[in-house]
């Protein structure tokens, strides 16, 4: 079975050696064996689990909770339901975060279009109610009509495209 040193794994995972050592000290790598010289030796399975650990971390799962997941994996089949429930719960949280980010991105793209068209007109007042700083509801409707007509939000906000 092929094994990898910590430096090789660091390159594969685009991590620092120090980060891998941190994960080990945090209890996330109890599955990694050591050679006679005390150096960590990673298998392909270890690298695959490291990818899952990093995906959980990117999803915002705290290190302590990732350690629980890893310990359940070490328990074997007795923890299959726990692991499934854990991933199911974090999937729902991540989907909610993605939805919120998509909403934020949609608003940002609207505002780019808003400022692009205002700059082209030389004034923001084209989007405002008369004698106010309040955005005219017609501005939102105009943007939505453009979107419904097939214009992408990215293109609408891009200064190079009209």
Main attributes of the structure:
162 residues, two-stranded antiparallel sheet, single chain, mainly alpha, elongated, 64% helix
Give a summary of the structure in a few sentences.
By secondary structure, this protein is mainly α. 64% of the residues lie in helices and 2% in strands. Strands 1-2 form a two-stranded antiparallel ribbon.
Task: Please characterize this protein's 3D structure.
- The protein is mainly α and 162 residues long.
- Helix content is 64%, strand content 2%.
- The chain is built from 7 helices and 2 strands; from the N terminus they run H-H-E-E-H-H-H-H-H.
- It has helices at residues 6-13, 17-25, 44-58, 63-75, 80-121, 137-148, 153-157, and strands at 33-34, 40-41.
- The protein has a two-stranded antiparallel ribbon.
- A hairpin with a 5-residue loop joins strand 1 and strand 2 (40-41).
- It starts with 5 loop residues before the first helix and ends in a 5-residue tail after the last helix.
- The model has no long low-confidence stretch (mean pLDDT 93).
Q: Using DSSP, what is the number of strands?
A: 2
Low-confidence stretches: none
**SSE order, as H and E?**
HHEEHHHHH
Oligomer: single chain
The main sheet orders its strands as 1-2
Average of per-residue pLDDT values: 93
What is the helix content?
A: 55-70%
- Beta-strand fraction estimate: under 5%
- Number of helical segments with 4 or more residues: 7
Computed over alpha carbons, the radius of gyration is: 25 Å
The dominant shape is: elongated
Structural class: mainly alpha
Largest sheet: 2 strands, antiparallel
Cα distance spanning the termini = 58 Å
């Amino acid at each position: 079975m092929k094994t990898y040193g910590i430096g090789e794994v660091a390159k594969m995972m685009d991590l620092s050696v120090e980060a891998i050592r941190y994960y080990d000290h945090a209890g996330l790598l109890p599955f990694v064996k050591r050679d006679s010289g005390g150096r960590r030796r990673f298998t392909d399975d270890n690298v695959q689990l490291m990818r899952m650990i990093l995906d959980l971390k990117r999803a915002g799962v705290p290190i302590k909770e990732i350690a629980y997941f890893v310990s359940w994996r070490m328990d074997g089949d007795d923890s299959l339901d726990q692991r499934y429930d854990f991933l199911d719960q974090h999937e729902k949280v991540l989907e909610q975060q993605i939805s919120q980010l998509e909403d934020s991105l949609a608003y940002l793209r609207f505002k780019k279009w808003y400022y692009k068209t205002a700059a082209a007109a030389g004034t923001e007042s084209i989007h405002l109610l008369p004698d106010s700083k309040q955005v005219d509801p017609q501005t939102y409707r105009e943007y939505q009509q453009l979107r419904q007509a097939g214009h992408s939000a990215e293109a609408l906000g891009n200064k190079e495209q009209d």
